[in-house]
Amino acid sequence: MTELALRARKLDASDELAELRSRFVLDDVVYLDGNSLGALPANVPDRLQDVVRRQWGELRIRSWDESGWWTAPERIGDRIAPLVGAAKGQIVVGDSTSVNVFKALVAAVRMAGDARDEILVDATTFPTDGYIAESAARMTGRTLRPVAPGEVRDALTDRTAAVLLNHVDYRTGRLHDLPALTAAIHASGALAVWDLCHSAGALPVGLDEHGVDLAVGCTYKYLNGGPGSPAYLYVRKELQDRFDSPLPGWNSHAEPFGMSPAYTPAPGALRGRVGTPDILSMLALEAALEIWDDVSITAVRAKSLALTDFFLECVAACTEPGRVESLTPEAHDERGSQVALRCADAGKVMKRLIERGVVGDFRHPDVLRFGFTPLYVGFGEVERAAWVLGEVLG
Amino acid sequence: MTELALRARKLDASDELAELRSRFVLDDVVYLDGNSLGALPANVPDRLQDVVRRQWGELRIRSWDESGWWTAPERIGDRIAPLVGAAKGQIVVGDSTSVNVFKALVAAVRMAGDARDEILVDATTFPTDGYIAESAARMTGRTLRPVAPGEVRDALTDRTAAVLLNHVDYRTGRLHDLPALTAAIHASGALAVWDLCHSAGALPVGLDEHGVDLAVGCTYKYLNGGPGSPAYLYVRKELQDRFDSPLPGWNSHAEPFGMSPAYTPAPGALRGRVGTPDILSMLALEAALEIWDDVSITAVRAKSLALTDFFLECVAACTEPGRVESLTPEAHDERGSQVALRCADAGKVMKRLIERGVVGDFRHPDVLRFGFTPLYVGFGEVERAAWVLGEVLG
Q1: Which are the contacts of B78, defined by CB distance < 8 A and separation ≥ 6?
Q2: Contact list, A229 vs chain B (CB under 8 Å)
Q3: pTM of the full predicted structure?
């Protein structure tokens, strides 16, 4: 056994989160793609069978009340809240991340007022945020300016209405400084909208503590909600009364069953709802979130950093110098829960890794991306992944 | 046995669709609320278990390709297509009805051009369509004018950009004349957007035949997709190249995995996609739609009319004259697949009906609503429902 394998064994033995792995359905594949699709929580299949067979099949329409379907978006939002540092009553679940970006950004621009005519968007963002921001700008008569997160401070002016930023860069895994950037945005009088897709469930976010205005995120990565599970929208309590949705569907009405032709928005977070919630996916997500009941996000963050540190060390030991280059920052306060390695022929390399039981993903044009979900990835797997990578790279 | 009960027995015996009932999970409740939430198709629970346990649990991320997750929105759209009279390649499934109304109406207004500055909306519509239309008007700088469907012809001018209409009124069950109204809208140079929530799966729609421009609908009523299952968007083939979405998420990009910061819309119907599709709900819907493989929508319509005719006849025979008043048109070509009865104390009456095993729903302020899903409702149940109603009304 190599020194690294021995180290991995020790790290696994002292890992206080190690037993959480049993809450997921896993096999001997080294699954480092939980930042794209989280693994299946073991309690989801039976829960979903109950939702389908009993709640839908037997109670049918009665389940909207009796099984709590109607209130699921805000109830499940309250389950996500502690994971992102939010008090209850500020998050609703529903729709896709893209749709929530649209709601959040249009609402932010409206709150900022007509004198502020520019939106800043993270130029390094996952593309959909940029596309949707372009539409939000077009439809609110604002100008969109893409800037790298490091340039946001210099780009802020008294014309800035809102800034849409990613907490963690989907490609490089770089963690942006949410507290400092939010403070800078506020100092300029603009609103801060954060995309938490690649941070929620992997590290503390502190939405309330840092005064974030609006935030969105998906639930199928580190929250393990299932393929395409509903996204969420956070609206800070103090702003909820001014949240003016571009998608004022009947679910956000103060009296949804009053069937009034006039729209009167509901109070609170549920103003962010739109249409009928997608119950099957939503209740699978609810079961998936129960895994977190006794889990500390601080402990998750500590393990996440230990995993990525160890992976970088193992990769350095297992590969020829210069064969791969890490795009992921060394500094802990700049690192999310993934490692991105630039590598020649990355597409082919990832294919061979997957054939050998190490699943990450490839991001065009030359990036191997490995996500580390602290709830179910162990140090032994990390060592094995690096070792297989070394073999594949020859 | 009464004469009506005997008639019901004969009608059931000669019902060529009677055996379809075995494709659903039903009990001895008379379920007349399929126009709100369709019953559970018998093949859905096992399918969903396979999706969860094998596709998600074992294949994980590979399922986006290997299990056909990525192409589900257009594949399932093609399954809905024949039910609404559309050739393939014009429907995508995803998002809620409200979100699809927004996409369709904004896109329609953009196609109509800047000189047309007014949107007409069905004043009798399910409220969400009106709320969303108001937002679409506000965000495209148009004026919204609510008009009753019967007044649309007179309201059309050369300023009309688009008209949003319901095919069947959710409250009264009135079927509007889609061919004639669409022709009138086209004659004025405007675009016709139809909401098919209460018609798709209950009667022939003929989208292609009648030249409808855009249409939306839910899938959890007569299509039995499950609570809050994803809605769909139809964009007529000739208009797809001009479909300019207000929600241009990455799933509608010509190269979604190219990760380009510049948005280039995909060709065809998938331009109507937005974010990551909600796979669990979507594949439950796909299973539910397989029920229709050998079912003729013409036969469904014939049975639907026979059911509502018979219900009206039974209600007349079982209740005191004047105790209830039908809001549903007598004429077949003006009737959807539901019967709405105005009734004093309708809320209490519906509660007592439900206690006695007859499930319809109550619509504020005074409407008893009964939906007739021809795939699983029989004539004996219709007779029983009317008989129980007579008893409840005393």
Answers
A1: B88, B89, B91
A2: 278, 280
A3: 0.98
